[in-house]
Amino acid sequence: MLDQYWAQKVTKKASSIIKASVQIANKSGQIIATSNSERLGEVHQAALYSIQRNLPIEIEDEDVAFWRVPFPGIIVPFEYKDDTYGAVLVSGQPEEIRPYSRLLKLTAEFIVEQEIERSMRFEEALSRKQLLSNILFNQQKILQSYNRKYIIDALGLNEPLAVASIFINSTSKIKTRALKACLDSWQLQNDDIIELTPQEIIFIFKSNTNRGTNEKKLKQFITQTFEPDLAERTLITLGDFNTGIHGLVQSYNESQALKKLLTSQDQLEGVYTYKEHELEIMCQNIKRFTPNNESALVANYKKLLDFGEDKYLNDTVEAYFRNHGKLIKTANDLYIHRNTLNYRIKKIYEITGWDPNTIDGIVLLRIAQYLYKNH
Predict the structure, then answer these.
(1) pLDDT tens column, 223-264
(2) Contact (CB, 8 A) for 252 and 337
């Protein structure tokens, strides 16, 4: 395998330097690069003989007729890992051009090696992207089939990762190329980028102390390093940091759920984390998938609003969440004694069955409040 483009570049440059005709033949003896365009595609029999036997041939003036060539010269086969890939042909007196032919042989072998390694890296990257795509975009399949140690190790899923869904609201090639260049500058060795369309990209960030080991720090890194012109048109949603196959899928689903929520609100630019909008997403899912639960939660919360003439329990709930459940601050905010606040909290529990002193009670109360306000 010898890339014809690079072979032609080498022959053109070498011919101008050594002032001699240089040609390169492939494994079949066919001329694929030459300073004489009329010979392109011709099968050179002497070169084929040299390639098949992996032997260099030096053609003196008296040997020209025997080898059926127009000029004296040297034919040197080139190889990689014991396989012959073609030959370099240099016209001229063998004694004069022998050093050049050796250098050109080394150059050809270097090109072959680079091309093979590049192809292997491309295939590995393609295989990696296909595997990640199968995991992320075919979740109806049993994830357990991918949950193998060698897959987890190969994809680097043992270390914490966060999935970012990136969407640029532009079809301009200049903008999309600039975005891709920016993402390439962020990419570290174990990161992965999956381009769904020129406008939509999935970026799998691996945890890094200099870039961010949690969503807040990663958001800060993105915000600080993102070009302002691109930031004005780009929406980036970050899932939580997780590990393993299931963690990868969860982080991806979180980034997608957040993207769906924000686009439904016509927010098409900025950097957002799932944690910042977890309550909204949870409530959106309740409204969408379990409307009966939504109705029950709203009805239960409404009891607080209807209690008492001055509706003070609603003010208590608002202050309680505004002060992050801290009793002294909540009492001060409401200008009431702490004992009075404890009485109100107890009353909330009696009416709704949700105890604000427990995590479950706080979560249900907060969800119900959000659903009521957005009912």
Answers:
(1) 999 988 888 899 999 999 999 988 999 999 999 999 999 998
(2) no
**CA distance readout (Å), 356 to 26, 348, 369:** 79, 8, 13
* Domains of the chain with bracketed CATH: 4-104 (3.30.450.20), 153-283 (3.30.70.270), 290-374 (1.10.10.2840)
C-beta of residue 338 within 8 angstroms of C-beta of residue 330: no
Q: For the chain, how are helix, strand and coil distributed in percent, rounded to 5?
A: 60, 15, 25
- Widest pairwise Cα distance in the chain: 119
Measured distance CA(164)–CA(196) in Å, rounded:
13
AA letter at 204 = I
CA separation, residue 105 to residues 26, 49, 135 (Å): 13, 17, 45
The answer to whether 271 and 226 have CB atoms below 8 angstroms apart is yes
pTM over 0.70, yes/no: no
Q: How far apart are CA 90 and CA 375, in angstroms?
A: 83
CA angle centred on 91, ends 90 and 95, rounded to 5°: 90
Please report the pLDDT score of residue 183 as a whole number. Answer: 94
pLDDT score for 78:
94
In degrees, rounded to 5, the angle at the alpha carbon of residue 105 between the alpha carbons of residues 104 and 111 is 85
Does the structure show a pLDDT above 70 at 146?
Answer: no
